[in-house]
Design a protein that fits this description.
The protein is α+β, with helices and mostly antiparallel strands. The protein has helices at 28-62, 65-91, 105-134, 141-163, 170-199, 204-231, 241-251, 285-300; strands at 2-6, 12-16, 19-23, 255-265, 271-279, 304-309. Residues 44-232 form the Cation efflux protein transmembrane domain.
Length: 331
Amino acid sequence: MASQHTHEDGHDHRHEGHEHGHGHSHAGHNHLHGVSDQRRIGWAFVIIAVFMLVEVAGGVISGSLALLADAGHMVSDAAALGFSWTAIHYGKRPATEQLSFGYKRLEILAAFVNGCALFVIAAWIVIEAAQRFASPVPVIGKTMLIVAIAGLLANIAAFAVLHGGNRENLNLRGAWLHVLGDMLGSVAAIVAAVVILWTGWTPIDPLLSIFVAVIILKSAWGIVKSSAHILLEGTPEGVNLIDIKTDLESNVPEVENAHHIHAWSITGEQHMVTLHVHPAAGTNAREVVLSVQRRLAVQFNIQHVTVQVEHDECVDEHSTTRQGKDTPRVV
C-alpha cells in the first residue's frame, strides 16, 4: 500500500506503509510577535534591573521588609526577564536533526523555571516576616515611602512596556505576571510606609509582606501549572479530542471515522494534532489529508496536523478501533 505525505505546498512524498500526511503553516505575524515580544522583554529587563538596585539599597537603609520583599521579587523578575529574552532569542534558531522542533520549548522551560523561582522568593518572604513578628525591627518610614513610590513608577513603566505584547505567549505572560506582582508589592510597601509614618505601628511591614508573598504564590502556581502541562504534552487548553472526532466525522465528507487522536503544544501558541482516519468510499489519501487539515485550521485554529489514512483495520495495538469508535484514546 502506498503512503502519501501531503504538504500545503502541494508536493506529495510517497513511502511504503500506511497513507499519512502532515501540514503546517507559520504565519508572518508569529515572527513579528516574536520580535516585538523580545524587544518588550528587553526594555522591561533594563527598567527592572536598574531599579532593583535602588530598592535593595532602600530596603537595607530603611529596614523595611516590605521593600526587601519587593526587591527580592524584582531580583527574580530581572532573572526571569533575562531568561525569557534569552529563550526567545535562541527559540528563533532553526530545527536540527537532534532538535526537530528547534528551540521553541526553551520559552516554556524558562516560564517553568521562573514560576519555581517565585515559590522560593515567596517562602523566603514568609519566613522573614515570621521572624520580624517575633523580633520587630525599626523601620524608617520616610525613606521607605520614597523608595516604594519610585518602585511603583518603575514597575508601571515596565508593565506598560509588556502590556501590549502577545498575551498568548506563556513566556511573555509569565514576565507580565512577575511585573504585575511587583506593582502590587510596591503598593503594599507604600501603604505600610504611610501607616508607619502616621501611627508608628511597624508590624504592618511584615504583615503586608505576607500579602505580597500570597500574590507571588498565586502567580507562580498559574505559571508552573501551565508550563508543566505543556512540558508533559497535555492537551492544549480549549481543545477537546472528542469534539475534534465528532466534528471531523460530521462535517468532513471524506472522513468515515477519526480515531487515535492526540493533541499537544510546542509552545503556548503552537498546537499540534496527529490522528488516524478511515476515508469514505471513493476518496483518495490526498483529498482526506487536505480536508482534515483545512477543517482543523478553520474550526480549531490548529495549523500543524499529521494525518494517517488507513484503508483497512488500524494496526496500532492501542487504537480506539479495538475499543470502540466513539471515544478517541489518549496514550
